[in-house]
Protein: Phenylacetic acid degradation protein
Organism: Methylosinus sporium
Amino acid sequence: MSDQTRIHVGGALPLERLRSMSGLDIVRAMGEAALPVPPILLFFGFRPVEIEDGRVVFAATPDERHYNPLGTVHGGYIAALLDSTMGCAVHTTLPPGQLYTTLEFKVNFTRAITAGVDIHAEGNVLHRGRSVATAEARLYDARRRLLAHATTSCMIFAADREPNG
């Protein structure tokens, strides 16, 4: 999938659309710019490059806007990228009428990241149960050096019900 030729529009999907499509179809349609992507992906410049059942890869190129006071990419940027990747990987496993929300996630940072470095986050579902899914993600640079890794637990619920209700 070429992320250079597609124009992505940000926005929330109507609940009716979420109820009628599988998670894999939703994530693929967002990757193909057929559906709006979450605005945070546009804000941070996260680009979907691979989408399959239980696996998603995002690319990004952070710049100086993403720096912390020490002159490296802020951990929040990295955490958002890993959380998005893991969440989308879980989303690809859901049938129509089901949604998910992150219950918790943990991030380990292994190398500092500076502006202009192309990075790829690879997210994979580890377990998909009836009400809980777990996933992991690894963040690499172009030389395949591990920059960070994370795990998550997500709650799965019916689209007609609130995640906390």
